[in-house]
Amino acid sequence: MYRPCGTFDEKYSQTMAIIRTRKHWILTLLGLAALMTMPLYLSGRVLHFVNLLGIYMIAAQGLNLLTGFAGQISLGQSAFMAVGAYSAALLTVHLHIPFWLSIPAASVIAGLVGVVFGAPSLRIKGFYLAMATLAAQFVIPWLITNVRTDLTGGSSSMLVPAPKIGSLALATQQSIFYLIIPLTCLTVFLVTNTARSRIGRAFLAVRDNDLAAEMMGISLLRYKLLAFFMSSLFAGLAGSLWAYWMRAISPDQFNLLESIWFLGMIIVGGMGSVVGVAFGVIFIKLFDILITLFGPRLTGFMSPQLAQDTAAGLSPFVFGLFILIFLIIEPRGLAHRWEIAKSYFRLWPFKY
Amino acid sequence: MLFLQFLLNGILIGGLYALLALGIVLIYKATRVFNFALGEMLALGAFILYTFLSTLHLSLWLALPGSVLIIGTAGLAMERLTLRPLIGQPILAAIMATLALSLMLRGLVLFYWGSSIVSYPEKLLPARASVFGDIYLANELIWTFVISLACFLALLVFFHFTKSGLFMRATAEGHDTAQAAGVNVERVFSMTWAIAALIAGVGGIMLGNRFGIGITTLPVMAIKAFPAVLFGGLESMTGAIVGGLVIGIVESMVGGYLNPQLSEIAPYIVLLLILLIRPEGLFGLKRIERI
């Protein structure tokens, strides 16, 4: 890893540190402070987007562990999110469990469901695995819609009460922000550290060649299922936050298109890079938001029905275009561009 | 009697699934790419014919070949613009490329035709039901089945009695070997996509005729062809036919005997079982891996 000229490591702890220099510390703390004080100077509408980004970030980082690091393709991330959302909602509505217990419980439940659908990965890979997770994407929402509709509300939406700390209900964008964003930061930190630990290295080995990895003593059973577990765990976390944030969930919020969005985010950002995925989520979501905001203006001259359809078509079209452009022109994603930009400024005024 | 009714219904619907599965298998065999964009290609084909018939008022005999030709050309363009640059990239790139393609096509269809469900000004195939004793069969579905069968036979003839068909079979054996033997592999890729798009166009028109033309109705049907493909094995055309029929029958039987709602996901449950028990499918090739 590159570091600025004149920065030396004298102890092992320095080599291992994520935050290395004093400047780095100051910048990190300033950044965190700016992030955490956002509710003070941003309006509710902007905070809505920030919270949405936070939730998407958690799910996308989870998928990055599975697809980017462990190389297992999953088309079912939003189905696992649905498991988390409905688990949290059911625990809250029917068992009256407080949110600080139901969120971890829902995450673990989603993780276990992920392991069940990830089990075929031991025998199959590539397209076949994509198919198995695609099946999850259809089976899980169907189960929610059709089994025990007295509990889940079936295809109509299920209402979730706002999480409560004592008498304080986290019902506004400002207050739920302090539930979502710290968990997002925690997720990013956990994924970063997982990636540089034994588990992350094992994932990389499995991604590059699973047979060779097994020859080297990496238990495929353990690490493939662990990858599915962790990825679905974060999906479940994102899903349970989604439930508390939206406060009305329905199975069609978690469709195949959402899963494709997550895959698109990690491709645009750069697979197997935590920073990259963060960029990818923000980049893709911002474009989506811009389209929803300005799409109607672009189509203002059309008849209302036509304008609505055109605006609806714009979002998938642009998203598909971005995925293709990145696949063809920059398969390493925004993360690679970020590295290039960083080294350019570090070496300036020299070229290399 | 009820059993026979469900069985025949399943076979007739299965014929359509088989045709769609064939479109996927063709592309997979030749290019090792799984075409997730099939559903949107169906919708595109059906909508182009719709425009020809109801907006431009062309006669059917002009509109039908015209729309099939256009969708074939579109298939050619898709391969040339998106998948050609990705040859040799990891498998995820191929998956994502066709998924992205499906999103873009969905966007285009929404731009031009919107999200409403429409139907052709007049039914293309006879709509009444035939009665055989106690069994009712929709004439549409019988015609659809016959057309699917005709497409399959035409493909069989094409593969075994034309030079291009020979090239395509050679490419399916191995890209490097085929290239070394003088086959223009890239041209074969284009041709495969064009043919698969033709099939998708025909399938889309028949599906649209039966179930209504809309971006919400048609892609869902294509996704049901995926289990059929895996059941038969990704590399086998016979497998696609058998898989399509089996999925059709399973769907019809589950819907008839167990629960109509369960029939929606019955294909995917079959899919999961296949993946667990025999991942390469009935007629697929077992892959042996070397490091």
Protein described:
The complex is a heterodimer of chains A (352) and B (291). With 352 residues, chain A is an all-alpha fold. Chain A folds into two domains: 43-254, no CATH class; 256-352, no CATH class. Chain A is 74% helix and 2% strand. Chain A has helices at 12-16, 22-36, 38-41, 44-69, 77-95, 99-118, 127-146, 149-152, 173-196, 198-208, 210-215, 220-246, 256-269, 274-298, 304-329, 333-347, and strands at 158-159, 164-165, 168-169, 248-249. In chain A, strands 1-4 form a two-stranded antiparallel sheet. In chain A, strand 2 and strand 3 form a beta hairpin. In chain A, helix 4 crosses helix 10, helix 5 crosses helix 12 and helix 9 (173-196) packs antiparallel against helix 12. The relative contact order of chain A is 0.15. By secondary structure, chain B is mostly helical. Chain B has one domain (19-225). Chain B has eleven helices and two strands; from the N terminus they run ααααββααααααα. Chain B has helices spanning 2-31, 38-55, 60-83, 91-113, 139-161, 163-173, 175-180, 185-211, 218-232, 237-258, 262-277; strands spanning 129-132, 135-138. In chain B, strands 1-2 form a two-stranded antiparallel sheet. In chain B, strand 1 and strand 2 form a beta hairpin. In chain B, helix 1 (2-31) packs antiparallel against helix 8, helix 2 (38-55) crosses helix 9 and helix 9 (218-232) packs across helix 10. The chains are: A mainly alpha (352), B mainly alpha (291). At the A-B interface, helix 7, helix 11, helix 13 and helix 15 of A face helix 4, helix 9 and helix 11 of B.
Query: Class by helix and strand content of chain A?
Result: mainly alpha
What's the pLDDT, averaged over the residues of chain B? 86
Task: Characterize the quaternary organization of these chains.
Answer: heterodimer
Continuous helix count of chain A: 16
Describe the sheet with the most strands of chain B.
2 strands, antiparallel
Structural class of chain B: mainly alpha
Query: What percentage of amino acids of chain B are in beta strands?
Result: under 5%
Question: How many E strands of chain B?
Answer: 2
Helix content bin of chain A: over 70%
> How many domains make up the 3D coordinates of chain A?
2
Shape descriptor of chain A: globular
Number of strands of chain A: 4
Count the domains of chain B: 1
Q: What Rg of chain B is obtained from the alpha carbons, in whole angstroms?
A: 19 Å
- Poorly predicted ranges of chain A: none
| Order of strands, widest sheet of chain B | 1-2
Question: In what order do the strands lie side by side in the largest sheet of chain A?
Answer: 1-4
Low-pLDDT runs of chain B? none
**Alpha carbon gap, first and last residue of chain B:** 55 Å
Q: Sheet with the most strands of chain A? A: 2 strands, antiparallel
**Nearest-integer average pLDDT of chain A:** 88
